[in-house]
UniProtKB/TrEMBL annotation:
Primary location: cytoplasm
MF annotations from Gene Ontology: DNA-binding transcription factor activity; sequence-specific DNA binding
Organism: Bacillus salipaludis
Keywords, ordered alphabetically: Cytoplasm, DNA-binding, Phosphoprotein, Transcription, Transcription regulation, Two-component regulatory system
Name the UniProt record assigns to this protein: Response regulator
InterPro entries xrefs: CheY-like_superfamily, Homeodomain-like_sf, HptR, HTH_AraC, HTH_AraC-typ_CS, Sig_transdc_resp-reg_receiver, Tscrpt_reg_AraC-type_HTH
PROSITE patterns: HTH_ARAC_FAMILY_1, HTH_ARAC_FAMILY_2, RESPONSE_REGULATORY
Any Pfam family: Response_reg
Compartments reported by the entry: Cytoplasm
Top-level taxonomic group: Bacteria
GO cellular component: cytoplasm
SMART domains per record: HTH_ARAC (SM00342), REC (SM00448)
One of the protein's GO biological processes: phosphorelay signal transduction system
HTH araC/xylS-type domain mapped to chain residues: 428-526
Length: 529
């Protein structure tokens, strides 16, 4: 572990070097500085674990250095040396980046005691970081990550062509989801803390993800995915067989038992309604969230079964979805508002469950349109969260409608701005769409329909803004994605080609070599060398 000694007096720096046998204590003195500014410069060029600094120095003193260090280098441990008169001040600064302090003159045994304590802390932190990195690798193989992203897309986003969706499912080895007659159920699982330490949820999140993936992998015809909109939750898609033997009951029992035994956490589980056909996945997903939302507050484990709710509750016609989308994209706020009141207004006498479902479908639609037009501001996200909370709490129908209309107005303003931005904002949205759907059969005519812009104008604007024509940009994007897939050695070259959107592996290899100067096989071999 590397140390910097910082003091404006050379003799004190020399004295500290001689106080202890640094190598024997597991440390190496990597440099010296005469003030805080010099120490920060060293930290920017060296990989340092510990800084021992004097309290009083010119230009930048020890306390100011510790504050700056905490901001720029939060993992570096700072030990401050102080005289007796500064003792209380230094001790009060322990929350401001100072790890520990030593009184002058420094006694060797006290220095050794602090170094030993810090060394043990750093060793634990590095072990935890290594374990976290290992879990991250386990949790996210390249194929699994893309599968999860697409499952989330199925249940949250708008999609134009069913053929594109089914083809992508086949590319991702999710063929069994394509069958329109296959019945599925969604299961939502939230972890809750039962020891009074809320940080445990964050600490155990990756482990929880890995446990869920392992359970899904071992459970017949079951997939899991994560939705960033809902903290501390993983969602499952369970494909039912004709005899209903593959029911959620065994999955739920295994989840509860594993999470309790391995993580000592409680689980709150929502079981959704049975549905069939990928066009109805949004309904199935929201039904599991609705079931979960009926749970009680507190840390006790609960299972909320919403599978017996009548199908009439989950009514949201494609025609209404189209009208609401057109209201946004045609910049017609009044039309959107009128249809919201038709859907959610008091004249329909909706049950609480029906209102909650319909409001969630509208919120999903607005979220999809916001991502389409790249509206990711903090204010917008906060308003989305307030709307979601208002839907779950359901203190006021009017409040929910008000939030939905506010969100719609913000999106309409962004759409209007995009139409009058010389095409630059539209091109940015197109690039974001391509980044998500690079493997699909994408044409300029499809994009022009999706973003309500003339295809010839889009082609010209795209080239002027990006510096490449559309087809060259898409090929380059696919090649960059393919390079990431090649890092996963479980994937064959033909699998990588399909996942990246190349229907012919021979053509893929030729284009890859032309672009990167190596064949896919040569690139994969070069990773390890």
């Amino acid at each position: 572990m590397k140390v910097i000694i910082t003091d404006d007096e050379v003799q004190i720096r020399k004295g500290l070097r001689m106080k202890v046998n640094w190598e024997e204590e597991g440390f190496q003195i990597a440099g010296e500085a005469s003030n805080g500014v010099e120490a920060l410069e060293l930290l920017r060029s060296l990989d340092i674990d510990v800084v021992i600094t004097d309290m009083r120095m010119p230009i930048m003193d020890g306390i100011e250095f510790a504050k700056r260090c905490q901001l720029e280098f939060p993992n570096v441990k700072v030990v401050v040396l102080s005289g007796y008169s500064d003792f209380e001040y230094v001790r009060g600064s322990l929350k401001e980046g100072v790890k520990d302090y030593l009184l002058k003159p420094v006694a060797p045994d006290e220095l050794i005691e602090i170094l030993t304590k810090i060394r043990k802390e750093i060793e634990v932190e590095k072990r935890n970081q290594a374990e976290s990195a290992r879990l991250q690798r386990l949790v996210h193989s390249q194929l699994q990550e893309v599968q999860e992203q697409f499952l989330l897309y199925l249940v949250k986003e708008e999609w134009l062509e069913l053929g594109m969706v089914t083809e992508r499912l086949r590319q991702l080895r999710l063929e069994e989801l394509v069958n329109e007659n296959t019945e599925v159920q969604f299961v939502t699982v939230e972890i809750r803390e039962n020891t009074g330490n809320p940080n445990r949820l964050k600490e155990l999140w990756l482990t929880f993800q890995m446990v869920c993936k392992e359970i899904a992998k071992g459970h017949f015809r079951t997939y899991s995915f994560y939705d960033p909109s809902y903290a501390n939750m993983i969602h499952f898609i369970l494909l039912l067989d004709s005899e209903k033997e593959n029911s959620p009951v065994s999955l739920v029992k295994k989840l509860q038992r594993s999470v309790k035994e391995l993580l000592n956490l409680e689980t709150v589980i929502g079981i959704g309604n049975v549905t069939s056909g990928i066009a109805n996945y949004k309904t199935g997903y929201i039904s599991s969230l609705l079931a979960w939302s009926q749970s009680q507050l507190g840390s006790q484990s609960q299972v909320m079964d919403g599978s017996n709710v009548k199908k009439e509750v989950f009514e949201f016609s494609p025609d209404m979805e189209r009208k609401l989308t057109n209201g946004i994209e045609s910049v017609n706020y009044d039309a959107f508002k009128e249809n919201i009141h038709i859907l959610l207004g008091g004249d329909r006498n909706l049950s609480i469950m029906s209102f909650t479902f319909a409001a969630n479908r509208v919120l999903f639609l607005l979220g999809s349109l916001a991502r389409k037009y790249n509206i990711e501001t903090i204010d917008f996200q906060n308003l989305m969260w307030k709307c979601q909370q208002s839907i779950w709490e359901l203190n006021s129908h009017n409040k929910v409608i008000e939030y939905l209309l506010q969100l719609a107005k913000l999106i309409i303003e962004k759409v209007q701005m995009a139409r009058f931005s010389n095409g630059k904002l539209i091109v940015a949205s197109v690039q974001q769409y391509l980044d998500q759907h690079y493997a699909s059969e994408i044409s300029l005519s499809l994009l022009s329909e999706l973003f309500h812009i003339n295809s010839a104008h889009l082609s010209e604007t795209f080239k002027n803004t990006v510096g490449q024509n559309f087809s060259d940009y898409l090929v380059q994007l696919r090649l960059e994605k393919a390079r990431d897939f090649l890092k996963d050695r479980q994937l064959k070259i033909i699998d990588v080609a399909n996942l990246a959107g190349f229907s012919n592996s021979g053509y893929f290899s030729t284009v890859f070599k032309k672009y990167f100067g190596q064949t896919p096989v040569e690139f994969r071999n070069s990773i390890d060398s």
